[in-house]
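quick q for whoever's on today - can somebody do inverse folding on this one?? i tried earlier but teh output was garbage lol. tokens:
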């Protein structure tokens, strides 16, 4: 692998967000991110240790030195798939921001894809990096970062628009985290980006999860935001973080 992957953790769980919610996946969480979202609950700082679940779905982890060679990673997945035959729908490549490792993923994905389909979870800001791997993935879950919830100071609308244009033609869906402070104009801007590409692309409104386990948006406001988006888009769904409701990883 030309540039080693730095992985935070590898585990088996239920996908709790977006298009594949409810599917069981093997999660590969990569380190490092190009953004610093206010609601992020992931430690994405680079480390020399990767947490690997001892058995798929056990919730028990081993610390493994990294970077891990590609053949060792593939060996872990081959073992897991033999332990739970037919149990996993796909790999979820998440982060951090996976597309920071686009060069390495372009080498690795063809081997992974022989085992299971690949689901790429991305913050939707790196359209040039996406170009390297989009032909090697089966699903793209693109986040759009709203100032009201993510707290990003940089206006990302243009980057999100470029990303979605690049992703169009793939099996792509869009997710936004919404809270009580989310405005009508933010949702209209999300719709502007999507309709400029294809108004039939799925949009998932994900209620903000608070540190104490509560939801950070009133249901009346949530329904209002869905109504606004549904006036312009043909597929708008509300899905909370199901894995958190289940107490899953």
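ok took a stab at it. sequence:
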């Amino acid at each position: 692998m030309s540039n080693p992957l730095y992985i935070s953790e590898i585990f088996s769980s239920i996908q709790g967000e977006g298009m594949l919610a409810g599917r069981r996946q093997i999660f590969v969480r990569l380190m490092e991110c190009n953004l610093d979202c206010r609601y992020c609950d992931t430690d994405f700082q680079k480390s020399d240790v990767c947490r690997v679940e001892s058995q798929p779905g056990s919730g028990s982890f081993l610390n493994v030195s990294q970077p891990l060679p590609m053949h060792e990673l593939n060996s872990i997945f081959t073992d897991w798939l033999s332990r739970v035959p037919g149990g996993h729908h796909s790999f979820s490549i998440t982060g951090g921001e996976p597309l920071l490792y686009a060069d390495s993923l372009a080498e690795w994905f063809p081997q992974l894809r022989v085992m299971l389909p690949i689901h790429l979870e991305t913050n939707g800001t790196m359209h040039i990096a996406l170009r390297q791997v989009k032909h090697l993935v089966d699903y793209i879950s693109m986040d759009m970062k709203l100032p009201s919830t993510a707290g990003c100071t940089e206006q990302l609308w243009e980057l999100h628009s470029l990303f979605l244009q690049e992703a169009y033609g793939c099996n792509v869906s869009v997710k936004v985290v919404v809270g009580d402070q989310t405005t009508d104009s933010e949702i209209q801007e999300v719709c502007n980006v999507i309709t400029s590409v294809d108004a039939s692309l799925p949009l998932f409104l994900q209620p903000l999860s608070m540190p104490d386990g509560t939801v950070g948006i009133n249901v009346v406001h949530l329904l209002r935001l869905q109504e606004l988006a549904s006036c312009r888009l043909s597929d708008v769904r509300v899905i909370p973080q199901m894995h958190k409701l289940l107490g899953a990883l």
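fwiw The radius of gyration is 18 Å. also Residues 70-83 form the longest helix (14 residues). so keep that in mind when u check it
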